[in-house]
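User: Can you fold this complex?
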Amino acid sequence: MTKPPVLILGGRSDMGLAIARRFAAAGHPIQLAARGAQGLEADRADIALRHGVAATLHEYDALKDAPDAWIDALPNLPGVVVCAIGYMGDQPTSEVDQVQAAIVLRSNFEAPALILAAFANRFVARGSGALVGISSVAGDRGRGSNYVYGSAKAGFTAFLSGLRNRLSGTPVQVLTVKPGFVATRMTEGMKLSPALTAQPAAVAAAIEKAVRRKRDVIYVKPVWALVMLIITHLPEAVFKRTRL
Amino acid sequence: MNVEGWGRFPRRDCRVTGPRSEDELRAQVSGGPLIARGNGRAYGDSAQNPANTVDMRRLNRMLAFDPEAGQLTAEAGVLLGDVIDAFLPRGWFPWVTPGTKYVTLGGAIAADVHGKNHRRNGSFRSFVDWIDVMGADGQVRRCSRAENPELFDFTLGGMGLTGVILRTAIRLRPVESAWIRQTAIAAPDLATAMEALEAGSDAAYAVAWIDCLCTGKSMGRSLITLGEHATRAELPDAKRADPLRTPPKRKLTMPLDAPSFTINGLSVRAFNALYYRKGAWASGVDYVDWDTYFYPLDAILHWNRMYGRKGFAQFQCALPLASAREGLEAMLRAISGARQGSFLTVLKRLGPQESAFSFPMEGYTLAIDFPVNPKSLRLLTELDAITIAHGGRFYLAKDSRMTAETLRRSDPRVDRFLAMRADAGRSGAFISGQSERLSL
Ligand SMILES: Cc1cc2nc3c(=O)[nH]c(=O)nc-3n(C[C@H](O)[C@H](O)[C@H](O)COP(=O)(O)OP(=O)(O)OC[C@H]3O[C@@H](n4cnc5c(N)ncnc54)[C@H](O)[C@@H]3O)c2cc1C
Ligand SMILES: NC(=O)c1ccc[n+]([C@@H]2O[C@H](COP(=O)([O-])OP(=O)(O)OC[C@H]3O[C@@H](n4cnc5c(N)ncnc54)[C@H](OP(=O)(O)O)[C@@H]3O)[C@@H](O)[C@H]2O)c1
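Assistant: Here's the predicted assembly.
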C-alpha cells in the first residue's frame, strides 16, 4: 500500500525537518515547502536516500503566495499537510514597530490559517486528509513578554478549533499541536528548563502518532497541559502582575 | 556547558555551537579558535575547546549513494549507526567500524579508526575516497589521494587539528546477511592467544579479550573471537528467510553515576572470571547478529557512568610486531601487580598501515580502561614507559592524560605534524584540550 505524501510548510524549520524525517521513516513521500527551497537540497537528498521515499522541494513564501494558486501548482495534492511556519520576532521591537508586529501577526495567524483552510476545502472534496497546525501554548494566555506572537497563535488555535468543528463528520482530521518549549533555532540561546523542553524528534514522533490516531489537540510533554491549566485559571487580577 | 569525552575525564566548561550549514560553520571558523566535535566518543579532551566546541551533529545528511561502487557521500555529522540503519537492509555494511556505532563519520576520519579487521583491510582511511575540509581561511578543499594529498594524509588521524571535515565519500562493503559467523577460542595464556591471532589471519575479523587479573602461568588468559560475514546460503532456515534483518534488541540504560565502589578489584575479578568461563563453555561456532558482534557495549546506553562521577581513563598502545610479545608481557605484569583490573582489555592484531599521523602500525594493540585515581594514574605512567621502551605509540582518541614529552618520545612523526599545523594558520584556528596538553 502506498502511503500519501506529507507536505511540510516551513520545511527549513528544525521541527518541520524532524517531522519530515519521521513521516519518511514511516514510508510517506515528502514535500518540503520553504522560502529559498533549493537551499534544502541536502535535506531532500538525505530523506530520499535514508528512507527510500520520493522527496521534493517547493518554493513557498507564506506572506506572498496566494494559497489557491500555490496549491494548484503543486504536482500532487498531499495527504497530510503540516504547517510549521512561525515567526517570533523580538517582542520589544514589535511594541514600537508596526511593520514588524504585522509580520509576526500575519506569519503566525493569517498565513497559516489561510493555507490550511484552502487545503481543507480540497481535502473535503477528495474525502480524505489530515491538517496539522503547529500552534503554541503562548496562545493560551497573552503574556507581557510575548503577546504579539502569543495572540497570533491564539488566533491560529481558535481557527483550527473552528475548522475542526466544521469538519467533524467529514473524514478530514484537524490536529492542533502545542509543543511547549522545543530546542530549535527559534529558542537557541534562551535559557529553557530541560524538564519543559522537548527535542524536535520527540515532537515529530508525537505528531506522526497523533495523525495515525486521529487526535484533535496534543501537547508534546504532558506536563504542559498542567502548567497551562494553572496559568489559564489564574484570576486576571493576579495574572496581570506576574512576569512570566 | 559542561563538555566531557566518553571517559568523563577531564570535564570542562565550554561554549558549544551547532552549525546547520557550511555558511554557519564558516562563520564559526572566522570567529576564532575552535575544535570540531562529533559524537563525543573519544575518551579524553580531543573534542573540547572552552572558547568554541563545534558540535557537528547537525551536519548529518546523507547526500548520495552509488551502488556500483558502494560509495556513500555524506556530511561529517552522520553517525555510523545511521549508515547501518539505512544501508544494511539493502545489503551494505561499513568496511571498518570501531567498537561502537555511535561515532560520526567525521570522528571516525579524524581518529582514522580501526576495527577487528585492521590486519586484512587496514584503517577507516582505506575506504575514504575523499573528504571536504574547511581550513582556517574558511575555504573548503576537496582532499583525496590525488587532490591535496598532504591535507588528506594529515587529516586522517589528525584529530580535528588540520581543519573541519565537512563531507566525505566512503565505500561500504556488500554483505549477504546481517549475521556474523563467530568462532570462539579460549586461550589459557598470552602465548596461546597470540598464536591464535596469528593463525586467524584469514578470518575477516579477529579480537582477543584478555582477563587482565590473571597472574603467573595463566597471565594473558583470553577469549578469542573470529568472525566472518555469513553468506545467505550458510544461514540456518529461520535466519535465511530474511537474512538482512535481525530481531530488535532491548536497550539498557546505566543509571546516573554508579557509586565508585562498584568498580573494584573484586567485581572486576568476578566479571572477568565469569566472562572467560562463559566463553570457554561456549567455544565453537555460532551465528551472532551484527549489533551483538560488533557493538556489545552499545546495548547498555551510558555504560561509561559505571565508573562513577570521577570518570575513567583508557590506555591504548600499539606495539611493533617484533617486540609485541615482550611488551605485552611486561604490561600484563604491571597491571596485575597493581591490582587494577579493567572490565575491558582488548588485544588486536594490526596489519600494515600507511599514514602520516594515524595510530595503527603493524603489530599488536592493547586497550584497557581504569577508573581515574592516583594509583591507576601511576600505573598508566608505567605503561607509557613500557610502550616507549618497546617502540610503541599511543592512540590519541583514547588519551586523556599523557604528557607532551611522552608523545614525542613515542612518535617521531610529531615534527612533521607540527610543520603541517604551522602552515595555513591551522595551529591558531584548530585547538583542543588535547592539542594544548600535548603541545601539538
Ligand atoms: C565503546 C567504544 C569503543 C571504541 N572502539 C574503538 C575501536 O575499536 N577502534 C577505534 O579506532 N576507536 C574506538 N573507539 C574510539 C572512537 O572510535 C573514536 O574516538 C572516534 O573518533 C569517536 O568519534 P566521535 O564522532 O564520537 O568523535 P569525538 O569523540 O566527538 O571527536 C574525536 C576527534 O575527532 C575530531 N572530529 C570529530 N568530528 C570532526 C569533524 N567533522 N572534522 C574534524 N575533526 C572532527 C575531534 O576534534 C576529536 O579530535 C571507541 C570508543 C568507544 C566509546
Ligand atoms: N521552538 C519552540 O519552542 C516552539 C514552541 C511552540 C511552537 N513553536 C512553533 O513551531 C513551529 C516551528 O518552529 P521552530 O521552533 O522549528 O522554529 P524555526 O526554525 O524558526 O521555524 C519557523 C519556520 O517558519 C518559516 N517561515 C516564517 N515565515 C515564513 C514565510 N513567510 N514563508 C515561509 N516560511 C516562513 C521559517 O522559514 P525561514 O527559514 O525561511 O525563515 C522557519 O523555517 C512554528 O510555528 C513555531 O511558532 C515553536
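Chain B touches chain A through twelve residues (CB under 8 Å). The radius of gyration of chain B is 21 Å.
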